[in-house]
Every structure is written in C-alpha cells, then in structure tokens.
Specification:
alpha/beta, Rossmann fold, Arc Repressor Mutant, subunit A, 2 domains, five-stranded parallel beta sheet, four-stranded antiparallel beta sheet, 12 strands, 23% strand, globular, binds calcium ion
Length: 229
C-alpha cells in the first residue's frame, strides 16, 4: 500500500525535524519545505494527501500561500500557528484550512487531527447514510438515529447537523455556519448558533455537558467528531 504523503511547510528547524520524525514513525511519507515558495512548488510537483502549513513563514505570508493553494489543492490543509492568534486562525479557516494546531501542541493531538482530516476526504463519495460512532444520518429520508432510536430534529437543526457532519473533523467558523444556514445577513448573530448547538447537543449527545460529537473550538467555531475511541 502506498504511504499517505504529507507536505510540511515550516521554517523552524526544530519543529520541522520533530514533525518529520513523528510522522515517519507513524508510517507517513514526508516532504519538507523551509519556505513558502518551495512548499508551493513541491505541492504542485507531487500533490500530497495533506499539508501542514505554518502561518509565519519568511518569504510568503501563510494566509496568502493558503489562498494560492486553495485555487487548485482540495486535500486537507492543517494550519500550525502560535497561540492567541484567534483572528488569524479564523481567517485561515475561512480561507479554506481544514483545521489548526496552536504551538506548542502534543503529538497525539497532531496525529488525531490529521486522521480526522484525512478521514473526511474519504467520506466525500456519496453515501445515502452517513455512519458515525452510535449515530447515523440518512440523507434520503433526512432522518437521524442514535443507536436505533429516531431523533426528532427541526429543519434548521438537521441542516446544521448535516453541515457539521459532512465536514467531519474540520473546524467550521461561527461566521461560516451562520452564513450557510441562516444567510449572509446573520453572520453576527452568534446567539442563534449557540441556541441551536445547545438544542442539538441535548438531542444527540449522550452527555450534553461533555459533548463528544459537536466540539466547541473556543472563540473560533465548532467541529464535528464522528469517531471515538
Ligand atoms: Ca514560523
């Protein structure tokens, strides 16, 4: 079987080496770029299955690189950023990044985020039923079941859940969710989102206070996780 190809675009030597060693030890094939321009050329020559992209690069701004990549590159891109850069993170997610990791991050977290992003690519083929741990969504019937039990959702709750579930593993920003579900005039109405997320959790989550499906990314948005354990 061919190894999954990861392109790392990161200018800090220590972090680059740590990522290389970790990913190789976990059976990924790794390409390394120290600069944005090198990364862009490598991605074009050998399109990877996933890109880890540092936002702070010496030659091109990470955001600009992301926009350029997203004109043709459809596989997952995970942003690596410094902590407390919420606005930059939100911008990156709106520019098409799938997820982000704030430095310093744990290896286990990095690998879990990568698996979730890679899994969402596989799930893109049309399936009439989306199957997750203990939860299924039937796209033809527009029904949701937890174990075998039918869960009654309003149209908005269903649409919101479906949008999150179809982007499994990906962080969706508040503005993106509000714009997509309610329309462009609603991007500042984050209270709508809070109310509907709370309702969904009450109906879906085994423990609504410790959600396992709909995860809060504080100050940024929400992420759907479909597989546990
Ligand atoms: Ca950097």
């Amino acid at each position: 079987m061919n190894k999954t190809q990861i392109l790392i675009i990161e200018d800090e030597p220590a972090l680059r080496t740590m990522l290389e060693i970790t990913l190789q030890a976990n059976n990924y094939a790794v390409q390394l770029a120290k600069k944005g321009k090198d990364g862009l050329i490598m991605a074009e020559n050998h399109p990877p299955d996933l890109i880890l992209l540092d936002l702070g690069l010496p030659d091109i701004r990470g955001q600009e690189l992301l926009v350029q990549l997203r004109t043709w590159f459809t596989n997952p891109i995970i942003i690596i950023s410094v902590q407390k850069e919420e606005e930059e993170i939100i911008k990156a997610l709106d520019n098409g990044a799938n997820d982000y990791l704030s430095k310093p991050f744990r290896t286990g977290e990095l690998l879990a985020r990568m698996r979730a992003s890679l899994r969402s690519v596989v799930a893109e083929d049309y399936q009439p039923v989306l199957q997750f741990s203990g939860l299924s969504i039937n796209l033809e019937e527009r029904t949701v079941r937890r174990e075998e039990e039918l869960i009654r959702l309003t149209t908005t709750e269903y649409n919101l859940l479906l949008l999150l579930a179809k982007n499994e593993g990906k962080v969706l920003t508040h503005a993106f969710l509000l714009r997509t579900i309610w329309g462009p005039g609603f991007i500042n109405q984050s209270q709508y989102l809070r109310v509907f997320i709370a309702q969904l959790r009450k109906k879906l989550e085994p423990d609504p206070n410790n959600p396992s499906y709909i995860i809060t990314e504080s100050g940024v948005g929400y992420r759907f996780l479909g597989m546990f354990g």
